Amino acid sequence: MTSSTTIIPNRSYWHVVARQLRQEPVAMVSAVVLLLIICAAVFAPWLAPADPFKASMLKRLLPIGSPGYWLGTDELGRDMVTRLMYGGRLSLLMGVVPVFAAFFIGTSIGLFAGYVGGRVNMVIMRVLDVFYAFPSVLLAVAISGALGPGLSNSLIALTLVFVPQVVRVAESVTTQVRKLDYIEAARMSGASSFSIIRVHVLGNVLGPVFVYATGLLSVSMILASGLSFLGLGVKPPEPEWGLMLNTLRSAIYNNPWIAALPGAFIFITSIAFNLLADGVRSAMDIRR
Fold first, then answer.
1. CATH number reported for the structural domain that contains residue 89 in this entry
2. How many domains does the chain have?
3. How many Å apart are CA 118 and CA 161, to the nearest integer?
4. Is 4 domain-assigned?
5. Distance CA 74, CA 71 (A)
């Protein structure tokens, strides 16, 4: 008599998250939209039909659907399709980089403050609470204005805006985790603080902080475009959606559809980031 045993492989946590994420239609559509926008931006030098800096005053503000110019031209006669594709490179860079930088910096500070606790925690959190006295938009404008216009200064300003928010989440989760029994057991066994944080605490903290950070991507996109719109971000003639929205203000009465195109791309991208973040948050809740 023979018997057969069916072995079911253990599915990892991230495998379950990926499976649940695929069951979120809104999140998947948002991911596809973001993928198309990112691919258009990354491969703009090969896909763009024209030179993003080539101007022609004879072709300025051509309407959408003009021969050879699918989305018309801007105030200097530059092809809008090309400008939007190249503009996505800087807009995505300014939206994504500050969030990832804040994720790494804020998680590190939050882990340290939450694990050490006591007066060290109080001092760190009270200092960071000063940043909460100002709205994110006002703080970003103030820091960027103090540093001066430019891409690098805008990235620094946005990173400083998001770091306190990430620290608060990381510190809160770390404070909860360090009180658990297995952390105390590891401490009593003689494990070093660095080892406990790396092996036992970090894995429990990264998930919630990562989910929170993904939700900041849409905010970062809007703030970055706002800085460029105010002249505190990317400098002309570089294509960037916020800056394009500013330079096309004068065309809103002559050709409003052309003037609205950069704003539409900012809106679509930020909404896609937001909906994808909601899907990731829902997928990572494996208890449902």
1. 1.10.3720.10
2. 1
3. 25
4. no
5. 9
Mean pLDDT of 142-169: 92
Cα-to-chain-centroid distance, residue 177: 27
Cis amide prior to 237 (ω within 30 degrees): yes
| Residue 52 placed within a domain | no
Q: Is residue 244 included in any domain, yes or no? A: yes
State residue 286's pLDDT score: 57
User: Mean pLDDT throughout 36-63?
Assistant: 92
**3-state SS record for 185-237:** HHHHCCCCHHHHHHHHHHHHHHHHHHHHHHHHHHHHHHHHHHHHHCCCCCCCC
Q: What is Dmax (Cα atoms) for the chain?
A: 89
Q: How confident is the model at residue 13 (pLDDT cuts 50, 70, 90)?
A: low
Q: What is the pLDDT of residue 11?
A: 55
pTM: 0.87
217 in a domain, yes or no?
Answer: yes
Task: Quote the domain boundaries for residue 270.
Answer: 16-44+73-283
- Give SS3 for 252: coil
What one-character-per-residue DSSP string does 3-67 give? ---PPPPPPPHHHHHHHHHHT-HHHHHHHHHHHHHHHHHHTHHHH-SS-TT---GGGTTPPTTBT
CA 286 to chain centroid, in Å, comes to: 24
CA distances from 64 to 67, 75, 104, 221, 231 (A): 9, 13, 43, 26, 27
Least confident window among 35-39, 135-139, 169-173, 175-179: 175-179
pLDDT in tens, 221-253: 999 999 999 989 888 889 999 999 999 988 888
Cα 127 to Cα 24: distance, rounded to the nearest angstrom: 39
Rounded distance, CA 109 to CA 273, Å?
A: 26
**pLDDT in the model for residue 1:** 42
Q: Which residues make beta-bridge pairs with 73? A: 79
